[in-house]
Amino acid sequence: MSRPECVLTHSSGLILIPNWTDNGGISLIAPSGGTHHVQSLYSKPLRPNGIALENGGTVLLAHLGDTQGGIYRLSADGHVEPVVMTVDGEPMPPANFVVQDSQGRIWLTVSTRKTPRSADYRASASTGFIAVAEPGQNDARIVADGLGYTNECVIDEVRGHVWVNETFSRKLTRFTISNTDSIQLSDAHCVYRFGVGSYPDGLALDEEGYLWVTSILSNRILRISPDGVMQRMFEDSDESHLQWTEEAYQKDALGREHLDTARSEVMKNISNLAFGGPTRQRIYVGNLLGDSLPFFDTQFTGVAMPHWDAELGELLPLLQDSAT
Question: One matching Pfam family, short form (predicted)?
């Protein structure tokens, strides 16, 4: 694996993760454990951070470029086409995350408008946003702005909420979807404010309505109730490393050197999680610095994402090849 930051699971047992090798692309892991890499044939290297599986087997990539972003569509043969390149008519900054809802809308997050991104590893961060592109549109519309380093979001269509992690504001925020035809978000509410050593990154929802949050640097997995009660489910951290990073954070001096270093027993800067397996009770853990994909089993069941039963289409032959 090469920077398996984001994990997607499918009812077939297929697992998809981004891949930063060479020109960028994705890696497919079959239920047997066999792996197939789909390399981008695009004219420039793509750095997929978040990914989203579409019906038919194409995969959306959130391009985390140094200065520019964009949402691209990757086909099984490596062909790439730009999908959403602007936000409110302006070039998209580096894109962090992408997800589709049940209506085929593309939701994306941009962590910061600052360059380099590390300039906004600050408690005062406030230039991140969430944007939405309607099906067939190549220009997204900002629906929530002024966020403190926007990371992953969950679209909870059943309850009419959007949940989002603000990594360096150290907050889990909930919005209400106030218009389902032309999406509007309102009633921003801080559900949980994280303390020392917690930098919320990945986000998933279980069937009881609880949010599962991963924290970079501390390798924590937290389960948070809708009304803000937190339970720590896992941690693999080093106390001296957390103290070093916390001192830098408090002095507005947190930088790449802190995020690019993992001091732990097993985990390599976990960034994401996804419920998978036959009953969606197995949790796969994405990470920034590792070359493997850890997992563990739990009694909790994850919500089926819109892509859970997506038609694999052109990916199906690759899945079968990987299985053999």
Answer: SGL
